[in-house]
Amino acid sequence: MSDAGPLARLEEVGLSHDGGKTFILRHVSLNLHKGEFVALLGPSGVGKSTLLRVLMGLSKPSEGTVVGPTQDGAGTSHGASEGRRRAQALVFQDARLMPWRSVLRNVAFGQEGLGLTRQAKRERALAALRLVGLEDAADRWPRRLSGGQRQRVGVARALTVDPDLLLMDEPFGALDPITRSSLQDELLRIWQQTHKTVLFVTHDIEEALKLATRIVVLSGSPAGITGELELGAGEKEPDSPAFRMYAARLRAMIAGEPDPGGAPYWQSAEI
Amino acid sequence: MTTALSPRQRLALSGLGLIVFFGGWEAAVRTGLLPSGMVPAPSSLWQAWLDEVHGGFWQQAILDSLSHYALGLLFGSVLGALTGLLCGMVPVLDAFLAGIVHLLRPVPGLAWVPFAILWFGLNTSGATFVIAISVFWINFYAAYAAVRSVDPELYELASAFGHGSFLGRLFKVVLPASAPGVMAGLRTGLGQGWMSVVAAELFGVPGIGARMMQASSLLATDVVVVYMLTMALLYALTDFLFGFVRVRVLRWQA
């Protein structure tokens, strides 16, 4: 496959639910490149999840173009792909498991309709469960799982369709800090193992800094992209000066203030 | 007072309740508190039952009624649940049928008897029709309510994983998610079905209901009570058997 273009892209996307009187999203352009881990950062209720759904093909944009990933990378349409995988998969904030299905069958749900044999589905689902460390829970009912375990199942369900693009809608937002932190570490491990392209929605600056290779800030009303930050591997140590500098810049981007720039605040004259 | 009772305690108390009920009844008749011409003593029921069995009436009535019951239940449940599911899923159909539903819903099964005779005659089909109608509405409303209470976020989940079509939503979300409600409707229908058997057979189609009517016109109250108890027993049996199906289908709720 050539690296000719981005894996998926949004061009001047706008979304309005009242025929154009008011817009939720406006002039949103975003390119996602293969292998990236992009955090979509913004305040609660700004429209991050909505943007994710537009990219997923679950809502139609009122303006602009959405080009999702396809299997051959030709970029013709978005949504479910042909063949034995799906081009993109979504992890929900609330895990959203089907209570009437066992853990294994919840994971296998994503593959239904892909023309796989029963055995193949089972094996792929088990492999995905192994990847999130829940192989032993395959036969349990979702009711019996903790919040963290439920999210792992949601991640496994998305991974099992072998998507090019993994869309995650604040997947760890409702978890306690300890569970959240360990799931973040696991997600990074899975990302490094699978080389998936990830778009991760969050309102947590530290989470975005910890996980992403690039952070895109969505802010304002109607929401648009108000800033972007490319992160190097060595700059993500929490409590490091670089980390704090980035956090300050991101806060400014969210607030719609001018970017304080690269100079760490401890070098400024104020202190 | 909300003392939790163990299942065994509940069973024992319910048995005790029955003993007190029949014991009190027997005592009331024997002491003359209740005139025996009006109410048969429980002890006289045994003989009445044996007579019915020896004449072959009891077995025949059960067989006849069971066939009305089974057919009526089958048609009423399947059609009712299907219509309810479709109305719950398709707003256009729901709105279209809303007026008709309100028109027909309050009509009791008994009121359909003249039409059952006209359309089907004094036979199994006529009785089946009357039972099916009363079972239909219970299942219709149960299925309808069950579909309407399906978590809408599950539809989004289905769409996200390529099952956003009508059939995808039906099979992946609506049927399994509404199963508890549909099963509750089926179960209520099991009871309603037996109640309707009497109405369905009132006009002369042979069965338990018809036999009860014959006995009551002869003031043979003991025979009437024998068939009342027979029906209670059959209901308990069907409900018990349905419990097994329910537990299997709704394993995830346990």
UniProtKB/TrEMBL annotation, chain B:
Main location: membrane
Keywords assigned by UniProt, alphabetized: Cell membrane, Membrane, Transmembrane, Transmembrane helix, Transport
Residues that span the membrane, as ranges: 73-104, 116-146, 224-245
One Gene Ontology term, aspect cellular component: plasma membrane
A Pfam family: BPD_transp_1
Annotated localization: Cell membrane
Annotated ABC transmembrane type-1 domain residues: 62-246
This protein's record includes keyword Ubl conjugation: no
Protein's membrane topology: Multi-pass membrane protein
One GO BP annotation of this record: transmembrane transport
Similarity remark: Belongs to the binding-protein-dependent transport system permease family.
Protein known as: Sulfonate ABC transporter
Species of the source: Acetobacter persici
